[in-house]
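Sorry, I am new here, but would you mind making up a protein's amino acid sequence and the tokens describing how it folds?
***
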Amino acid sequence: MPIHEYVGNLHIHTPYSDGEGSHLDIAHAALAAGLDFVVVTDHNVWVSGVEGYYRGGPRRSLLVLVGEEVHDMRRDPQTNHMLVYGMEREVAPLASNPQALINAINEAGGLSFLAHPMEKAAPLFHEPAISWVDWSVSDYTGIELWNYMSEFKNYLTSRRAALQAALNPDQYISGPPPETIALWDRLLAEGKRVRIVGSADAHATRYSMGPISRVVFPYEYLFRCVNTHLVTPHAFTGDVDHDKQVVYNALRLGHAYIGYDLPASTRGFRFTAQGLNASAIMGDRIRLGDGVTLQIVSPLVADVRLLKDGVRVHQELEGTHTTYIARDPGVYRVEVYLSYKGKLRGWIFSNPIYIYK
């Protein structure tokens, strides 16, 4: 069965909320960065009339879709941000009751991802922690495991540190917060099928510090960093409605991984499973039987780690093609690390393969 890979960003803002660039600006930046699709997620507003294919020449096109980042404006601080996809209508009026919001999304066939679920505050810059706090909710699609701008906030510990991080962000960005990874593993251990995405949280905001004023994180730069890669048996056809469903179905099934594409492109990563009479890709379930062969393909020589139920069970420090025979049921996922600018960075984080008896 042929597998198609599409790379996109799922958390972006425009002047309809607190971003600086138009949908056309975003499309141009995403095309320049080599993306295949984006989903624009303005705060508490669903923008109609802008979805479609944007062209970047005779052989390049970008699918622009519209979602929403929903949160209760009356909360202080305004925690519980949710990325909503596939609803095709405004859902912000439900924000005050997160479970009711999730239920409405599920009933309509949409998707819900808890945004930046464990964020730290940057009090020096009056930036509160906008984490997810209502953990009584259930049946959401997944979580945003890696949010680029939330990680950046971790380095705003002083004005000097903020300036250094803003001018040289690739010296600092290194992976999803360990607390968020641990949270994800706990949720998986509870039997929840929690899918993951990684995104930019792009605003293209201009920052000023003394005489220095610049757009520190332009859209194009962020679109070259933390992205979500879809792996799917279904190809884009150029039809917007069809290709939209390809994107959303892959996210729904967990047929995706997070790639930090700045050090090197992560295109081509694969994590698959082969049983006696069945096969699986990321997000799938497969019966254990007498054993399941797990195969990992890394696009470059890297530190490849296989984890079962959150515990490392296999590692190749210089791996490209890794095989492991699973003899026990569990939740298996992959992390890949790459050395970049003198530091080992998180490079790839896969959705799990679920092996059951």
About this structure: The helical segments are 23-33, 98-107, 148-153, 159-167, 178-189, 219-223, 240-253. The longest helix spans residues 240-253. The chain has seven helices and 21 strands. The longest strand covers residues 292-308.
